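I hope you will forgive my troubling you with a question about protein structure. I am sending you one protein, given as its amino acid sequence and as whole-number tokens for its backbone shapes. Thank you for your consideration; the sequence and its tokens are set out here:
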Amino acid sequence: MAVGSYPFPNMSPVAGVKLGSTSAGIKKPGRQDVVLMELAPGSRVAGVFTRNVFCAAPVAVCKQHLQSGAIRYLLTNSGNANACTGDEGLADAIKSCRQLAELAGVEAVQVLPFSTGVIGERLPMARLLAALPAALESVSDDGWERAAKGIMTTDTRAKGATAQFQHDGETIVVNGIAKGSGMIKPNMATMLGYVATNARVSQSLLEQLAKTAADQSFNRITVDGDTSTNDSCVLIASGQTALPEISDASSELFAKLSAAVIDVHRQLAHCIVADGEGATKFVTIQVEGARDSREAVTVGYSVAHSPLVKTALFASDPNWGRIVAAIGYADVEGLTAELVNVWLDDVQIVASGCRADSYTEEQGQAVMDKEDILIRIDLGRGSAAETVWTTDLSHDYIKINAEYRS
């Protein structure tokens, strides 16, 4: 089940980036489950990763290899997370990098490995390594949708986003794909994401942009409050443009690039929420009037993670008291109930901490019956504002996760 219509977009190639996929039969025979991204020499890569203490072996290897720079290949398998697999799992991740490097004629440290799927099981290395030659042969500059399908696990649809802009007669393209449906919560967001541009960007600015874009997109979504062991989001700049390298954060070109990169990240984040496991609602929680960003995010996630709020959303029940309760128990020091106002779309349900005089149950019901819902909260404390995106919690969420390993 998924919310709304999110067709995979038509994507122009990103010069210097090729993608391919093949099947290794990691979880299901014949399923595309090995994805390869080939980067032009000189490409720069920055990454944002999970903060889960039980981070998967490929995450640890990615962090090490990124320090060397000069990344040429990204290797992803779905169906197996290679997490909580100890020294053997770490050795498997390294071995996959070495094998691909040998086939491609690069160094092992120039390969970044990624895995997604079931936790606690070793990778079927013989099948994975045997699939690498076919993955190499399959790469092309129009392989974005095939790659997006190859990284899926419980996703019901491939997720992609794209943006373009012109600067001094040159076209800059930003493409991205992602996977994610369950175990969705920030630090990082629970997903795999790959965003690439043909722009030429300094390493320091690329790393800054990767973090900023993740904070404004993947770190503002939640489905179930669970943070995975394998979360990774990579930003690639292939540098295949005649424009000069972007090294000034105050430049017009960096502003244009930042806007496009953040837009693609947000599109992908919305795709993940809309495809949340068992989701029937896409919910935007907009918190304003906070003293700072942290406070606004805290309140937003307090509402978004409330099982009572989420089940009311699934039932289309305008039980707005659950929203107020979640605001009230958020960790916000000195929050004054009498200053708080709350709306469902444009229907005010709470005014100065009490039920709004103008509110009727029929108005609330009309909003809750919709598939796309806005909950707007004004804390009346300051000028900071943040937005969080989430879903409802349905019977199907339980069914999907109860049957995940079957």
Summary: Residues 51 and 258 are 24 Å apart (CA to CA). The radius of gyration is 22 Å. The domain at 282-402 is CATH 3.10.20.340 (Ubiquitin-like (UB roll)).
